[in-house]
Design goal:
heterodimer; A: about 325 residues; alpha+beta; 10-stranded antiparallel β-barrel; 11 helices; 10 strands; B: about 375 residues; PH-domain like; zinc (chain B); Peptidase M48-like protein (chain B); Mito/Outer_Membr_Metalloprot (chain B); transmembrane helix (chain B)
């Protein structure tokens, strides 16, 4: 039955706003009552729901992470951030200007160092805890390699006043996506900094000139660029990934979402989120001769959620 | 019937294997049809069936350690059969939040109660906890910190940053005179009070933690009598003595922490701790803190035998200028009818004034410096 259309396979999201609303309310209440300590469990329940309701080729994804795992990471990261801030505040209270500057510099250096380390941990955790038809994803990147690349590119981005940022993001995507495994499927990212730079340049310029209206088309260009440059391969057979998202559709989606949110004072957020997921998922297609039955479990288990919690807390959105 | 159609994934490959599951005593019998037509059989021990999920109308069960085996069953009678066969065994985790099982009414009720509880904590409990925390900060830290803030404001008035509307340049003559003036009044405070008059047209004044008081020349220019100035200083020094700034900082920080905790916006905390440090001096005081400072000021006037009508006249100056000045500049001193009433009520008519000639002569010098004499 599933082998009837071998050429294109679509992702789809089947989550429902009402169910999401219940999850949000419960998460929110328990987070309040526990003064925030419930946060990791809240995150787990939301991820579980969204994974379960995302399907590919007839089967849903599963998120295996638990609140307990993420809580352990959460506590570690709170500790690290607490120590960093403690040092900063102590230095400031000492009134010693030199000390304050030294500690402040150290603070930023450590924070910068923590970013690639957190990214690495997050990728390992998220991929290992995601599965489809019982086969887990995995990330085989090397932490010190990623850190080296990250710091070099961050430095270049700073001295070029952000221009190198396009290459920075592309190199990061290339490294990370190139190290993702899904059973015996490998991935590659084929984007390049130059194209990405001009894409952003054009998008921002036109967004300003059209008083923001072009922004929706710009967002879709970014989405397309990301998706269409991911290239999967199964047993030597190429599986290009395609996006069919259109700026006009995204524009309409955003208008309706905006109206829904403003008329309900934000209460419609879970429904809006379901609409957004549905839109993006239904616009991702895998082309080629994908064999959903021949994936083989290849990746080891990884349960340390510290990196993922760190990424969450720093609000990193680099990929 | 205890046998159901299932889909099975072995955790080794992604192949979908069709088969049946039979619910037996203590275990499940899973029979799978191999591609070559032969059958294989697997046992799932009841105690190791770990996770159960329900997606759409599919029941999903996981078994064993990593990589887990998975079983999916679409049969609507499967759940019923489970509870009949294993009445003591909980396959479906109970909804972890019991209120969700009690119907919409109870759920909504509990939500509302908890919300009210949150508002209560935020409005009443949090501020007093924050204030008592503020009181534990040693005075020396407060002074050090206040001095740092003060130096930042006077030295680095960058546009658009900390001092956007407080581009402060010190007026040396008036500051010197104001400090002489302040020494003639006993404020009954343990803080080292230091007055700085800055060349600003704005009609305002504020106090920093630890003893620095900044008076804008715009306000000083409008004053006609020394008792008005004394009332202002009494008010600002009271902010210092009662640690109002510190209480305010603790209040707003704790309020922010609370809000970001309940909105799950943990990453926001990082930004705000840094951001808030810049905005501290722009925060307004609460009505209670202002009232406390007014009372203190009145007391200082009385104890120093300075005419108490100074406070009322000060309010009149502030009120007159609030009609022309942008209102946000007065946000640190919201004038209310109540404050005027308080000043009027506590003003002593025909009071016994003991003139302090030093105070009078310093005030004259201030008037001369302001070109008013």
């Amino acid at each position: 039955m599933e082998n009837e259309q071998p050429q294109f396979r679509q992702f789809s999201y089947h989550g429902d706003g009402t169910e999401l609303f219940k999850i949000y309310i419960v998460n929110w209440l328990l987070t309040i009552v526990t003064f925030g300590l419930y946060y990791p469990w809240a995150k787990a329940s939301l991820l579980k729901y969204n994974y379960q309701h995302t399907k590919f080729d007839g089967s849903n994804f599963t998120f295996h992470g638990t609140g307990k795992e993420m809580f352990k990471g959460f506590i570690k990261i709170i500790g690290v951030i607490g120590v960093l801030y403690g040092a900063l505040i102590a230095a400031q209270l000492s009134g010693n200007t030199t000390l304050t500057i030294v500690v402040l510099l150290g603070f930023y250096v450590i924070l910068l160092l923590l970013v690639p380390i957190a990214l690495h941990g997050s990728m390992r955790y998220r991929t290992s805890r995601s599965s489809w038809r019982g086969i887990h994803f995995g990330y085989r990147g090397d932490r010190s390699e990623l850190t080296k690349q990250f710091l070099t590119d961050a430095f270049l981005t700073i001295i070029t006043f952000g221009i190198y940022g396009a290459w920075f993001i592309n190199n990061l995507r290339t490294y990370i996506i190139g190290n993702i495994r899904f059973g015996n499927i490998t991935f590659q990212y084929t984007g390049n900094g130059g194209d990405f730079f001009w894409l952003n340049f054009k998008g921002r310029l036109l967004s300003v000139l059209t008083l923001g209206i072009y922004f929706f088309w710009y967002s879709m260009d970014l989405f397309d660029y990301f998706i269409e440059n991911i290239y999967a391969e199964q047993n030597g057979k190429p599986l290009p990934i395609r996006s069919t998202a259109k700026g006009s559709d995204f524009f309409l989606l955003s208008i309706v979402n905006g109206l829904m949110l403003s008329f309900t004072l934000g209460l419609a957020f879970p429904w809006v989120q379901a609409r957004v997921f549905r839109f993006f998922m239904s616009n991702i297609w895998v082309q080629g001769d994908f064999d959903g039955n021949s994936l083989v479990q290849t990746e080891a288990e990884y349960r340390d959620a510290s990196g993922d919690d760190m990424v969450d807390m720093l609000d990193l959105n680099l990929i | 019937m205890n046998t159901f159609q299932i889909k099975y994934f072995d955790g080794v490959t992604s192949a979908i294997q069709e088969g049946t599951v039979k619910l037996s005593y203590g275990h499940w019998d899973i029979r799978l049809e191999k591609p070559d037509g032969t059958m294989s059989s697997i046992h799932w021990q009841l105690k190791d069936i770990k996770q159960t999920e329900f997606v759409g109308n599919t029941n999903i069960f996981k078994y064993g350690d990593f990589p887990q085996q998975t079983l999916e069953c679409n049969d609507p009678d499967f759940v019923k059969a489970l509870s009949l066969q294993y009445p003591d065994y909980e396959f479906f985790k109970k909804e972890y939040f019991w209120a969700l099982n009690k119907g919409t009414g109870v759920f909504v009720g509990i939500t509302v109660v908890l919300l009210l509880l949150c508002v209560g904590v935020y409005k009443y409990i949090l501020p007093s906890v924050a204030e008592s925390l503020a009181l534990t900060v040693p005075q020396e830290y407060e002074i050090k910190w206040g001095n740092m803030m003060f130096e930042n404001m006077i030295q680095a008035p960058k546009k658009g940053e900390m001092g956007s509307e407080l581009n402060l340049t010190k007026n040396d003559t008036l500051s010197r005179l104001a400090n002489q003036f302040v020494k003639e009044i006993d404020f009954k405070t343990t803080y080292p009070i230091k007055i700085t008059v800055v060349n600003e047209k704005v009609v305002n004044a504020f106090a920093l933690p630890g003893g620095n008081v900044v008076v804008f020349n715009g306000l000083l220019k409008k004053m006609k009598t020394k008792e008005e100035f004394a009332a202002l200083l009494g008010h600002e020094v009271a902010h210092v003595t009662h640690k109002h700034s510190l209480k305010n900082i603790f209040r707003s920080l704790s309020g922010y922490l609370f809000m970001s905790l309940i909105t799950n916006d943990l990453n926001g905390i990082t930004a705000v701790i840094l951001d808030n440090a810049n905005k501290l001096q722009n925060l307004g005081y609460s009505r209670e803190l202002e009232a406390e400072a007014d009372e203190s000021s009145m007391k200082t006037l009385k104890e120093n035998k300075i005419p108490t009508k100074g406070l009322l006249n000060l309010f009149k100056i502030l009120e007159d200028s609030s009609q022309v000045a942008p209102p946000e500049l007065l946000s640190s001193h919201p004038l209310t009818e109540e404050r005027m009433k308080f000043a009027k009520k506590n003003q002593i008519m025909n009071e016994k004034i003991i003139e302090n000639p030093r105070l009078e002569s310093i005030w004259k010098e201030i008037l001369i410096a302001e070109n008013k004499l």
